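seq/struct pair 1
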Amino acid sequence: MLELIMNFAKKDERIRGVLMNGSRVNPTIRKDIFQDYDIVYLVTDVEPFKNEEHVISHFGEIMLMQKPEDKQLPPPIGDGRYTYLIQFTDGNRIDMHIIHISKVEDLIKDSLTKVLLDKDDFIPNIPSPNENSYLIQKPTEKQFLDVCDSFIWGLGSHIPKTIWRKELPLLKTLINIVLREPLMKLLEWKIGIKNNYNVSIGKGGKKLETLLEPVIWNEYLKTYADGNYDNIWESLHVFYQLFKETALFIAKTYQYDFPKDALEKAYHFLMHVKKLPQDAISIY
């Protein structure tokens, strides 16, 4: 597959350089059979490469293909690139981005970038691929408080009314947005503290299991409830406990303020709503 990728570039004069990024150039990632080829073709003119027959005929039998820049939902990136996401019948996959050569300075800011081809020596020298762009960053106190505020507001405002109304699809969406995202950010910072900010939790937190203490990971697993409301209520209690413990750890480490009173008020209100009958005509 890499040979096909390179031959396509070498035969087309409009392609002046090739970059590869993502997991295949990450020295810390364990290699496996599902790794994509994340490829950037640096070209003098993007427009001709929108002709899919010109592009895809070079690469093999296609099972599935997406062209994100041609879609309305989700909206395209819209920065002038053109992208082919291709799943081949042999199991290989390419995420292929056709980007104008003028964008090269922005592209190489990603530390997980490797130069495969540079026909004109126009690509600046870059370090060997590393995770520097993705390492956990120490939070400022404002960032810490903002994340706490997001969780507390979600726990005490969004979640109570939605679970009482039994609006399950909305409830599950909100749990992931207003509770899981802030909790994951706190867990990320805790991992950063314990590892001198020299690690990454990976896309979507995929490395959490290997970076968290086993007891914390097992508790975190309990936040993934099914559609049973009793189980969801139990998961909300785990969310609260994990968030509180992790936030206190970070606050103590950096001597940051922690809105403990607001968290307790939010949780107590949630527990009050849990006891409300479905035919209640007032909250209190």
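seq/struct pair 2
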Amino acid sequence: MNNHEIDFKLYGDDLQFVEVELDPGETVIAEAGSLMMMEDGIVMETIFGDGSQNAEGGGLMGKLMGAGKRLITGESLFMTAFTNNGTGKRHVSFASPYPGKIIPMDLSTLGGKIICQKDSFLAAAKGVSIGIELQRKLGAGFFGGEGFIMQKLEGDGLAFVHAGGTLHRKNLQKGEVLRVDTGCLVAMTADVDYSIEPVSGVKTALFGGEGLFFATLRGPGSVWIQSLPFSRLASRVFAAAPQNPAGRSQGEGSVAGGLFNMLGGK
């Protein structure tokens, strides 16, 4: 085992958080801003890259390459490591950023690698490598919704991925094909063939209310689908928010809106 062996417990239903149990000396890494709480004895440290000793090689150049890959995916160059420096078991918890589910993924049972949306990673045992996955076909980059570059998580430890709404795992048999709205694809195992296809029919594409392209997934392998992508939720909220001519929300009679008007807001 190259990764730290951590234990965990999930709390909640639609607004979940994961509590990670660390033995003395164990470490979990997480994206900045995902911490919810931690017990005394846990030391928090900002690290360059993901802190793993992966195939990029050791030394400064390896760290720069690993961190550079994270920068390409739109993430920070730095991550946060939480280490138990105490003498007994300690707990640290990480919260999901919006309504949905947290998926614990044991990479040792998933072929040592999964491919996921670039913003879905939440936390992982130290030793898990967080890099990029270049899609083989350019169409996936231009029209895939998740962009040409997706994240890949490699190792033999636990990783936690977050997605919106209800999660559904579907196991594809060899040659089985599944077509998915591009925004609803959360993750897949490395053996799944992934491509982008246009919606057939001009009328369907223009007036069907869906996107012009969908993801075509071909088995064998496992895929994880989310019912409510954050981009879809955000667009609906933004479209429903009342706007005044200045572009500010009216507040619909809220206390904040009334206070704004009392203070001279227009």
